[in-house]
UniProtKB/TrEMBL annotation:
Organism: Taxus chinensis
Record-linked InterPro entries: Adenylate-forming_domain (IPR052979)
Protein name: Uncharacterized protein
Length: 91
């Protein structure tokens, strides 16, 4: 694992892991607020995919994930979603 900019979550301490993420949600700023959006916006753009469904519609999340896994050479994928969203990605 290469050291990179720290990634932190409200329940986790910053870590040196090379974390990339995909975030698909509706009305992200409205629903999550400026504080969280500001933290996400400050994360390196090459390590994130942010998709606001209120602006861009619903993507094919499984396809988006597979493409990102290949582009990022991901070793681990963690899906946090409702049951049907998880099934769409995990199969």
């Amino acid at each position: 694992v290469r050291e990179s900019a720290s990634f932190s979550h409200s329940c986790c301490k910053p870590c040196p892991a090379d974390v990339h993420f995909i975030w698909v949600a509706k009305s992200i700023r409205k629903n999550f607020g400026d504080d969280i959006v500001g933290k996400i916006e400050s994360y390196p753009s090459e390590k994130k995919i942010i998709h606001d469904t209120a602006i861009s519609g619903r993507p094919n999340v499984a396809e988006l994930t597979v493409r990102a896994v290949k582009n990022w050479s991901a070793e681990v994928v963690i899906v946090t979603s409702n049951p049907s969203g998880t099934r769409d990605v995990v199969g």
